[in-house]
C-alpha cells in the first residue's frame, strides 16, 4: 500500500502549499467524481494536482519530496508504468461519516497493468457489484477498486458505498447545504474543501486535551480554498456553534501571531513579513483566516534555513 501513500503525499504536499487572485465564478465537482459520492456525503475536499504540478513553487517543494515518494515504489512504477508524482491529475476526497473516507484519484492509470501487479502481490480480493475490491494487506481495513484512469479507495464500507452510488441510473443530489457551500468556492482554486468538520476529524496527535482543543469542540463546518501562481494566497472559514467560541479562538490566534512577531523581530525580520501575511477576523460565529504570502519571500526563507542547518 506504499504507492497509495504516495498518492496521498502528492496531494497533501501540493495542497498545503497553495493560492492567488481568485475569479468570481464558483467551482464544480467533475462528473467522474460526482457519480461515486453518495447523497449522505458530509464533506468534500479536492486537489487539482495537474494544475499545481506546473507551478514553480510546487516544483521546488516536490524536489525535496521526490526521494521519499520513490522509496518503496520503484517496483510498482516499473511494473505498472504509473508514477503518482507525474500521472495523478485530480484527487477528490469525500467524508461519508465519522472516520469514513472515500478517495477518488484520477489520472493516467492503466487498469489492466495495475490489477496484474496486485494480483501477483496476492492481496485479498472481493467481488462487489461486478467490481474487484483489493483489500489492504497492512490490515488497515482499507480497499481499492481500479478503473481505467481512476482509482477508488478508502475503508471497505466507504468503497462499497461509492460502488453502490455508481450503480444507480442517475447521480443522487448531494445535500443542499453542501452544494451551497461549494458555491462559495471561487473557480481557479487548485485546492478546496467544504463540509461538516469537527475535532474528531483531526489527527489523534492534535486531539490531546488542551484549552484550544476544548474551544475547537464547538467547530461545526467550514470551507477552505487556495490557489498558487508566483505567490500563495488562501482563505479558510470555520463556523462554530456560538459566537464566543469563534471569538476566543480568533483572540488566541491573533495573540499567538503577536507574540511570534515579537520573538523574531530582531533576529529574523523576513519571518515577521511572513507572519504579517496571516490575518484572522471574526463575524458572529464564523472565524476567517486569510493567508497572502510572497513566493520570493518563502524561497528566501527556505534557502536561509538550509544555510543555517549546514
Molecular structure report:
- The chain contains 13 helices and twelve strands.
- With 310 residues, the protein is an alpha+beta fold.
- The protein folds into two domains: 2-167, no CATH class; 202-309, no CATH class.
- A twelve-stranded antiparallel β-sheet has the order 4-5-6-7-3-2-1-8-9-10-12-11, with helices on both faces.
- Helix 1 packs antiparallel against helix 4 (56-70).
- The two termini are 35 Å apart.
- The relative contact order is 0.14.
Give the SSE layout.
Blueprint: H1 2-15, H2 31-34, E1 43-48, H3 49-53, H4 56-70, H5 74-80, H6 84-87, E2 88-97, E3 100-107, H7 111-121, E4 125-128, E5 131-135, E6 142-147, E7 150-155, H8 156-167, H9 176-182, E8 191-196, H10 211-216, E9 219-228, E10 232-240, H11 243-264, H12 269-276, E11 278-283, E12 286-293, H13 295-309
Antiparallel strand pairs: 1-2, 1-8, 2-3, 3-7, 4-5, 5-6, 6-7, 8-9, 9-10, 10-12, 11-12
Please state the overall shape, judged from the principal axes of the Cα atoms. globular
Strand count, sense and closure of the main sheet?
Answer: 12 strands, antiparallel
Radius of gyration, in angstroms, nearest whole number: 21 Å
SSE order, one letter for each helix or strand: HHEHHHHEEHEEEEHHEHEEHHEEH
What share of the residues does DSSP label as strand, in percent?
25-35%
> What is the share of helical residues?
40-55%
Mean pLDDT: 81
Instruction: Give me the number of helical elements.
Output: 13
Terminal Cα separation, in Å?
A: 35 Å
Q: Please tally the β strands and state the result.
A: 12
Structural class: alpha+beta
What is the total domain count? 2
pLDDT < 50 stretches: 1-25, 306-310
Kindly report the spatial arrangement of strands forming the biggest sheet: 4-5-6-7-3-2-1-8-9-10-12-11
Amino acid at each position: 500500500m506504499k504507492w497509495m501513500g504516495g498518492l496521498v503525499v502528492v496531494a497533501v504536499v501540493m495542497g498545503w502549499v497553495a493560492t492567488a487572485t481568485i475569479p468570481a465564478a464558483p467551482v464544480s465537482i467533475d462528473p467522474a467524481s460526482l457519480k461515486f459520492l453518495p447523497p449522505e456525503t458530509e464533506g468534500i475536499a479536492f486537489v487539482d494536482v495537474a494544475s499545481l504540478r506546473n507551478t514553480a513553487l510546487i516544483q521546488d517543494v516536490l524536489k525535496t519530496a521526490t526521494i521519499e515518494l520513490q522509496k518503496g515504489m520503484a517496483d510498482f512504477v516499473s511494473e505498472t508504468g504509473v508514477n503518482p508524482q507525474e500521472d495523478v491529475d485530480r484527487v477528490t476526497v469525500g467524508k461519508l461519516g465519522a472516520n469514513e473516507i472515500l478517495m477518488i484519484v484520477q489520472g493516467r492509470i492503466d487498469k489492466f497493468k495495475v490489477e496484474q501487479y496486485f494480483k501477483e502481490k496476492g492481496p485479498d480480493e472481493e467481488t462487489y457489484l461486478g467490481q474487484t475490491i483489493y483489500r489492504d494487506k497492512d490490515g488497515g481495513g482499507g480497499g481499492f477498486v481500479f478503473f481505467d484512469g481512476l482509482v477508488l479507495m478508502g475503508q471497505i464500507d466507504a468503497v462499497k458505498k461509492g460502488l453502490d452510488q455508481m450503480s444507480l441510473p442517475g447521480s443522487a443530489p448531494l445535500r443542499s447545504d453542501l452544494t451551497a457551500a461549494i458555491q462559495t468556492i471561487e473557480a481557479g482554486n487548485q485546492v478546496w474543501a467544504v463540509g461538516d468538520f469537527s475535532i474528531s476529524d483531526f489527527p489523534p496527535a492534535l486531539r490531546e486535551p488542551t484549552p484550544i482543543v476544548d474551544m475547537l469542540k464547538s467547530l461545526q463546518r467550514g470551507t477552505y480554498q487556495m490557489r498558487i501562481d508566483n505567490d500563495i494566497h488562501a482563505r479558510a472559514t470555520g463556523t462554530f456553534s456560538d459566537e464566543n467560541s469563534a471569538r476566543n479562538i480568533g483572540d488566541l490566534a491573533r495573540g499567538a501571531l503577536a507574540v511570534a512577531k515579537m520573538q523574531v523581530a530582531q533576529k529574523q525580520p523576513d519571518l515577521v513579513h511572513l507572519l504579517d501575511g496571516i490575518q484572522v477576523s471574526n463575524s458572529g460565529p464564523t472565524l476567517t483566516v486569510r493567508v497572502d504570502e510572497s513566493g520570493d519571500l518563502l524561497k528566501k526563507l527556505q534557502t536561509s534555513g538550509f544555510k543555517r542547518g549546514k
